[in-house]
Amino acid sequence: MSIAASLKHAARWGGLTLLLSLPLSGWMLNGYQVTTTWHRPLWLAGGVFVGTLLAMALARLLEMPPLRKLRWRMQTKITVTRRPALPAWEWGVLLTIAATLPLWLSTYWLNVMILALIYAVLGLGLNIVVGLAGLLDLGYVAFYAVGAYGYALGSQYLGLGFWTALPFCALLAATFGTVLGFPVLRMRGDYLAIVTLGFGEIIRLLLNNGTEITGGPNGLPAPAPTLFGLELTRVAGQGGTPWHTFFNVTYNPNLRAVVIYMVLLAFLALLFFCVGRLQRMPIGRAWEALREDEIACRSLGINHVTVKLSAFAMGAAIGGIGGVFFAAAQGFVNPTSFTFFESALILAVVVLGGLGSSGGVVVAALVINILHELLREFSDYRVLVFGMAMVVMMIWRPRGLLSMRRQFFAVGKNL
Amino acid sequence: MSGRYGLILSVLSFVFGTLAFVAVADGAEAIRIGVAGPLSGSYAAFGEQLWRGAEQAAKDINAAGGIHGRTIELIKADDACEPKQAVNVAHRLVDAEHVKAVIGHFCSSSTIPASVVYTEAGILGITPASTNPKVTERNLPTFFRTCGRDDQQGGAGAEFIVNHLKAKRVAVVHDKDTYGQGLADAMKARLHGLGVREVLYEGLTRGEKDFNALVTKIKSQLADVVYFGGLHAEAGVLVRQMREQGLQAPLISGDGIVSQEFVASAGGPRFVEGVFMTFGRDARKIYGGRHVVEAFRKVGYEPEGYTLYSYATLQAIAAAMRATRSEQGDVLAKWLHANTVETVMGPKAWDAKGDLKVTDYVMYRWTPDGKYQEVE
Amino acid sequence: MNGYIVGQQVINGLVLGAIYGLIAVGYTMVYGIMGMINFAHGDIYMISAYLAAIFLALLTGAGVQSVPVALVLVLALTILFTAFYGWTVERVAYRPLRNSNRLAPLISAIGVSLILQNYVRISQGARNQGIPALIEGHVRVNAADGVTIGQVTYTQILIVSAALLSMGALAWIMRHTTLGRSCRATQQDRVMAELLGINTDHIIATVFIMGAAMAAVAGLLVTLNYGSFDFFIGFVVGIKAFTAAVLGGIGSLPGAMLGGVILGLCESLFSGFVNTDYKDVFAFAVLILVLVVRPSGLLGHPEVEKV
User: Fold this and answer.
1) What value does the mean pLDDT take over residues A310-329?
2) pLDDT digits 0-9 by tens, C278-287
3) Cβ–Cβ of A330/B203 closer than 8 Å?
4) Which of C205, C292, C302 is nearest to C250 (CA)?
5) Which of A301, B117, C48, C109 has the smallest C-beta neighbourhood within 10 Å, fewest atoms?
6) What does the alpha-carbon distance between residue B273 and residue C198 come to, in Å, rounded to a whole number?
């Protein structure tokens, strides 16, 4: 595009912005009157004009020969390869770096990392349902809530500890997933989406309204995890001995976060490995096949109900475990953490990461959470910028950050 | 190395790089004090009250020479009234911003988890606005509040209903939130103590605008008083729909509607006429606060609701720091427990739990011109 | 008294249902033509409420005294600008994603929703805003024996009639005009429609404009009815309206209205006779039950799968 054409193009968008923002920014409501603030639409239009020019210049730059190759490489596409995404030693290095983070991160950033890892776990769980099995679930937060509340309620009424809560809540959430799954799996595509959304809302409302049991809007306390029977709090609350008393060291309030982080990291690594394996097992192949063509699958004798249910239950179980970690890390649970927006955020992690790509989901969870925290500096504009980033990311990389990889089987030559 | 590796590694290096950068960044000479509240989300108007109050107080204290020559620097922290974010910003204030004291948060549901973080870190925290009893009922040695408690406030409401309005059929409505439901429950408990039972106790959903079905139900129960535990956005719509359906029973609420926005959300001053609410004695009328109020009005800001509470909170923190020459939470807390602070809202002193020794909930009545006035 | 309560609750439900229906139309049209959930639609409705209040304030400031004249002008201006917003959203956030995977537009829509909410919050403030009560008064509805069974305000009558009227107009456009035929063709098979010479980009843009226009009608009338709004109102109403659209069978215009009315009645009757706390639980439970029995909604066409 010539410079004149570019200017014209940018001017057009600037003009549109001026017109569009004129009423909403040009006047400010003040009671039943308005105050005139015409400088604001002008600034906005100017910003869009300059922004469009810059974006076009950048696009032009990316067309240049050396960069074009790079751009081609960066494009997300499903790759079929024999090599694993990262060789074993690289995994080792990554895990070691991740495991040493608590040594030099402040509690604040450690907590951010814990949240990011929880989102990674949730993302991996939802990825099974949405990415692999192709079932759009907008109420994934329900299973997350079941896990979190399962732990909080379990510790309060049944004396459940963190370690027993992990399998217990996974099972509980899986049961919820199966119960929901049976009726809804007849539905297709977006009907499923709205039913799961409704289910998520129902769970949240029940938690909020059942004040006698769940504490209603006040929520419930959730105990910190124990480590080999030793408690990580300043004062023993669960009938055990605090860690620092046992080893006779001074109390370190970070310990709780460090332990949760390490356990979470280990679990995430295990989950990552398992999901990779699942994908290559018959059940994983069946999920993907069913996503691509349900009729063909059924005619080939795949039981679509069990296959879908297994994906749903598996995703739910992982969501439940994520909930247990969340409750343990926060120290308490309350219904506002389980709104529809949370479901949308987890879905954003999955889609931004790249549907079906486990590595991408983990990276996206890290990027979203850290970005969200870094943007705190901009306080007023934080959510605005976050929304823009979502739109821009989708336009720039509609298939997500990392593409899905599929390893092929090498069939023996003498077969 | 393929493009794929490059992308993974560049993303990871971005992640770790920023972490490293943030982990190292530090340094401060001024006394840093955090102001945490909902600066975004649907409660943002209250967050603005907290911020404006603290901002003006900091300006005035700094202009008067600061604290032993050191200025106060305020750090904004947005929790959007969401507990998860509240814990996050609490950690940020403590670890990344190294604040010495915190003013906040606004919503009780945020204050409760966040106060644990401050206490663990040994930092003084004072909330100007969270009225839920649980805030100070958990033995947190360094956490205080400069407002009343919902059990006091609900009690004041119940006594007004029974003794003043002589109501027999009371409908209790709340917004299913920590603050609103807590207030309604406290009111209900006192009401039972006074020998009156409610005819209806239900929760509406925050963010909705249509309470017509609920209003019809209240009407069918022949309620002669409606008590609402919640915030102005819902209270305004509720009272308007009550009036539109011809239900003239007075509405009584708490400090969640102390904002001109209540008039806006009711759709005009004539709908709010006759609405009662409990709130602390109007800080704008207290003598010592007059010049502060003038300063706010000069910049076109009406210091309503919790603005002056926030101002007073910073005054209390500054007074403690000045007197003790310390920034340690336990030292400051000890001083605040023992002394009385002269604030813009009059003298304030705290009991062992961190509650105010004297809380003066009085009843206000909204007038036809969209203002509120103390009921004699 | 009892007859009064039932009658009044039915009226409450019908009015609420009409509001849901008006907004649900936007969801159902976009879904029908593009197969995507336009999560930003609720926020388009929110924008229209702000626009209506601003235009009303401007006209009052300019000295327009007559209420009907002011309302008609405000309605026209609000529809114009809201439609403009609808078009822009489609152009900027959805058109570039036309041929990518099914979920990309969904995430983009969530992003747009955040942008619109925060744009309004920053430019208009987080405060509750309101518009004055312009239309006063109500009529009593009497049963045959002269007993009052409820009352309806004029604004509520306006809402229901506007909902019916615009729904009728929309149905007529879809059935009898070239534009409507092109819409339906695009809905059935986009590629084929394109091959037949229909500019599907235009059609999709038009659908967004029409959906936004309906949201604008809702925005003005609902704001008149409730008197107040803030930058967050789009969310709750959006989810309910979307539920209504699915309940009625997404893609079907009469379905959106029917779904809205059923949802509104469910809410108000359950709230009135059982419990307000659980009305949304009940509404969503009804949705799930209906979809279990009729997986394509009440008036939706069951999709025939072909191999």
Assistant:
1) 94
2) 988 998 898 8
3) no
4) C302
5) A301
6) 58
Q: Which domain holds residue C208?
A: 2-293
B241 and B370 fall within a common domain: yes
CATH label of the domain that carries residue B215: 3.40.50.2300
| Cα–Cα distance list, C11 to B145, B245, C2 (Å) | 46, 12, 14
pLDDT for res A185: 75
Judge if B239 and B368 occupy the same domain.
yes
Asked if residue B368 and residue B223 are part of one domain, the reply reads yes
The minimal CB distance from C227 to the residues B44, B208, B268 is found for: B268
Quick check: B177 and A217 CB within 8 A? yes
Nearest CA in chain A to C111: A387
CATH code of the domain containing C60: 1.10.3470
Taking any CB pair shorter than 8 Å as contact, residues of chain C touching chain B are: 1, 4-5, 8-9, 12-13, 15-16, 19, 118, 121, 126-133, 138, 151, 153, 222, 226-230, 232-233, 235-237, 267-269, 271-272, 275-277, 279-280
CATH 1.10.3470 fits A85-407, yes or no: yes
Same domain (yes/no): B305, B368:
no
| Interval C148-179: pLDDT, tens | 778 888 989 999 999 999 889 998 998 899 99
Domain count, chain B: 2
- C239 part of a folded domain: yes
Per-residue pLDDT of chain B (376 residues; tens, 9 = 90+): 344 455 555 555 555 555 544 444 444 478 999 999 988 777 777 888 899 999 999 999 999 888 888 899 999 888 888 888 898 889 889 888 889 999 989 988 889 889 988 988 889 999 999 988 888 888 888 999 998 888 899 999 999 999 999 999 999 999 888 888 989 999 999 999 999 999 999 999 888 889 999 999 998 889 999 999 998 889 999 999 999 888 899 999 998 888 888 888 888 888 888 899 998 877 667 666 778 888 888 888 888 778 889 999 999 999 999 999 888 889 999 999 999 998 888 888 999 889 998 887 889 999 888 888 888 7
- Residue C301 domain-assigned (yes or no): no
**Nearest CA to A350 among A16, A123, A12?**
A123
B96 and B35 in a common domain: yes
Residues 242-271 of A with CB under 8 A from B: 253
Subunits in contact with chain A (3 or more CB pairs closer than 8 Å): B, C
As a whole number of angstroms, the distance between CA C213 and CA C51 comes to 12
Number of domains within chain C? 1
Q: Which two tokens stand for residue B143?
A: 């956490």
Q: Which residue of A has its CA nearest to C57?
A: A33
In whole angstroms, what is the distance from residue A136 CA to residue C291 CA?
Answer: 16
Same domain, residue pair B73 and B210: no
Residue-number span of the structural domain to which B267 is assigned: 151-281+362-374
C131 touches A at CB < 8 Å = yes
Closest by CA position to A146, among listed A275, A361, A369, A335 = A335
Mean residue pLDDT of chain A comes to: 84
In this predicted structure, what is the pLDDT of residue B14?
A: 55
For chain C, list residues with pLDDT below 50. none
Question: Does any CB of chain C come closer than 8 Å to the CB of residue B269?
Answer: no
Determine the length of chain B. Answer: 376
Out of A74, A115, A370, the one facing B18 most closely (by C-beta) is A370
Note whether A136 and A192 are within 8 A (CB): yes
Which whole number is the average pLDDT over A131-152? 92
Smallest Cα distance from B268 to chain A, Å: 9
Nearest-CA distance B209 → chain C (Å): 7
B residues 145..184 contacting C (CB < 8 A): 176
Instruction: Say if CB A261 and CB A114 are below 8 A apart.
Output: yes
